[in-house]
Amino acid sequence: MDAQVRLGATPDVVLGSVHAVSEDGYLLVGSASGSQLAPYASGARKAIWVVGAQKIVPDVATGLRRIHDYSLPKEWRRLQENYGQTSFIGKILILEREAFPERGVVVLVRDTVGF
To answer: Can you give the pTM of this predicted structure?
Structure first.
């Protein structure tokens, strides 16, 4: 089990999304368990985030509000309807800058993608 957890935290490539992108370039991700945060932060050799344009916010404060006031209620409903459970925000990752510029890639999609 420990080996599986470590492998999940250090993949070669992680593909995911974020809950908000600030106009000055911060990426914000909220998570209940935090399982995706280690590879997002530094565990993966390459991180690719596909982000819908609706997630662009003016600043970090607005991004934090978006996580709590928009994304969490949507995830809460999705989990309740599909699995009979709810969600919460246990951890928040704010990415400001990559030490290795080639490591992180944001693919901004003009359409609504995710929540």
So the answer is: 0.88
